[in-house]
Amino acid sequence: MGAPFVALADGSIQTPGIQQSGSGVIGESFTLTADCKTGSPNCKWGGGLGLLDNPPGWGPTGQGANTLDYLPALIQVTPVAPVAVPRCAKGSAYQEDVGGCDQSTVYACGIVGGGAQVDMSFNPGKSGGETSIATQCLIHQAGGQDVLDTTTNPFPFQIDAGAGNSMVTAGGIPANSVITSSSSIVTVPIYDDTQAPVQFPLNVNQAPVTIVGFLQVFINFVDANGNPNVTVLNVAGCSNTATDSTPTLSGTSPVPIRLITPQ
User: Fold this and answer.
1) 3-state secondary structure of 137
2) How far is CA 48 from CA 91, 119, 205, 217, 262, in A?
3) What digits encode the pLDDT tens for the residues 88-107?
4) What Cα–Cα distance (Å) separates residue 242 from each residue in 11, 14, 30, 47, 239?
């Protein structure tokens, strides 16, 4: 994916600007792919057969250009389990978190062990995987997801309501109407993969990670392999030397947090 999104030392944006205006991370599109061995039931290191593609494109099975790896975040169901969950995302706490509203999982920015963990006990990838099912549910892909128009000039980009948008299905607006909010907009935490081994130990299911920033992205669609294709709308960074007094970001953020991706 080229240059990092944020600098680890101070959280500054590495590639500021709007891509459609010449350069910058805003407007960049790529595919999120699970950093797990295809067909494996989990994401744990397995003697060379676990995590495969970190950074993207590495090794004989690398995903190549325009991809970014992710790992599933550990979802906290106490004191409040994910709520407002549609029926198509009820298969697990992870699905409910992606498809609904997570009010309990805390992502402390820049603090080692500040609450953020990855869940290596399952593999969310593949066409029928947890990420594919829940993300398609979230964006109403079966009925027609919202569409981001990145050709809009001047910025910001325009969002057109898809046929599956709840406002369209309820008869409130016609399809293709310009809208200002969308369930396709999510926030992805970025973790610092230099502070922990890339190969998480075989006996570790829930490894702590340090969050160094957040990407706000628009989910365009889920491809045939179960991988979400996204476009960057915004990026925020934080230093990886933050203290315990640093404010934390939880699931009550106005933009839901879904996956977790390495920096």
Assistant:
1) helix
2) 30, 19, 17, 32, 19
3) 999 999 999 999 888 888 77
4) 10, 19, 29, 34, 6
Looking only at the bridges linking them, the beta strands covering 29-34 and 67-70 are parallel
pLDDT in tens, 146-197: 999 988 776 789 999 999 999 999 999 999 999 988 999 998 888 877 765 4
Residue environment code for 79-104, b if the CB has 16+ CB neighbours within 10 A, otherwise e: eebbeebbebbeeebbbbbbbbebbb
What pTM value is reported for the model?
0.83
Question: 189 phi and psi, to 5 degrees?
Answer: -65, 145
Neighbours of 151 (CB within 10 A): 8
What is the spatial distance between Cα 216 and Cα 253, in angstroms, rounded to a whole number? 12
- Report the C-alpha gap between 243 and 81 in whole angstroms: 28
By CB neighbour count within 10 A (0-12 exposed, 13-18 middle, 19+ buried), where does 48 fall? Answer: exposed
